[in-house]
């Protein structure tokens, strides 16, 4: 069977699994239930293979390798998921949070990257595994940005206070694009022979980031003009499909700019500007229903594949130690990278007291980090006794992602509930000039 056939069968399994888990319990988020179920299935497959039964582990691993998780997500459905997620961003609330989101997406992502890199570098050397610092930075770059796919799939259904929700969702959308740009830049230095000079790195970073944002504006404007020129509801929806398909591919493969940032910018434009002036009231409902269906379907498939990605991970003693260590390191780096700008911004604004806790614990990692880890070339860099750097990074990434989705994702709801009880109607406001803290 070809890749298309595998995707068809796995999609059906993911949907059926989501249906079954929803019937068993409606208290667990479907994405969490699908991921957990798929991970349990992958463990059973591995056990059966270890016992020599059916050779099922080899078959399942071959299927996962043929799908190419990295290409499927980074060069495929990521555009759809980011565009669908950004359609729901409310521009007035986003404008009110623009400085927070910009600082968290830029400063906090960079700070977290180097905090994680430094901690992993020190710990790895302490346990007798001398890893070059640049490879630690690669891990920090791919694990620092919160995954908007995971965040939007889990957080948006919990109905957090609007402004707090926008901080979490807006930051995840933009730091995803920023994180991808940081990863591409560091990856070029670590594996692509790019000179590690300040001008070279900044040039590559700015080309990816600024180019992606500008292309997103152009793409959104062209789509707005075309959608506004027709009254055909079906054609209006079809025109939105050209953005995460041809637009995403053109950004990544032709212009070599960040397709992720382009999707976020164009999605916000279509979801706010075009929604008001380009769509009829009926077409607006069609737009929401269509992209909600696309989002739910692709999320189900993606989280199913995340659970089965366990079959692609090779474990060794060093990897197991770093796998356990990586979870608290990433959480601590996330907290401190947010705490620094958060404390500074508290001088001029008042926040819901649960903001920092929710942004830390609700900053989930997901398939995006796994896809970046899987994109690292195998058998090109080694540490210790011939241990592949890719395997070390992949096992740490998988542990952080699974902890994030299964533990953080399933326990963030009590925090959000408390945040609504503290101040249900006004969780953030400008401080009057004559007030005191």
TrEMBL record:
Keyword Transmembrane helix: yes
Protein name per Swiss-Prot or TrEMBL: Sodium:proton antiporter
Protein's membrane topology: Multi-pass membrane protein
Species assigned in the record: Haemophilus paracuniculus
Cation/H+ exchanger transmembrane domain: residues covered: 48-417
UniProt xrefs under PANTHER family: NA(+)_H(+) ANTIPORTER NHAS2 (PTHR10110:SF195), SODIUM/HYDROGEN EXCHANGER (PTHR10110)
Gene Ontology terms, MF aspect: potassium:proton antiporter activity; sodium:proton antiporter activity
Keywords: Antiport, Cell membrane, Ion transport, Membrane, Sodium, Sodium transport, Transmembrane, Transmembrane helix, Transport
GO BP annotations, alphabetical order: regulation of intracellular pH; sodium ion import across plasma membrane
GO cellular component: plasma membrane
Cell compartments where the protein resides: Cell membrane
Family under the similarity heading: Belongs to the monovalent cation:proton antiporter 1 (CPA1) transporter (TC 2.A.36) family.
Protein's UniProt keywords contain Transport: yes
Transmembrane segments: 32-51, 72-89, 101-124, 133-154, 174-192, 204-227, 247-270, 290-311, 317-337, 358-380, 392-412
Top-rank taxon: Bacteria
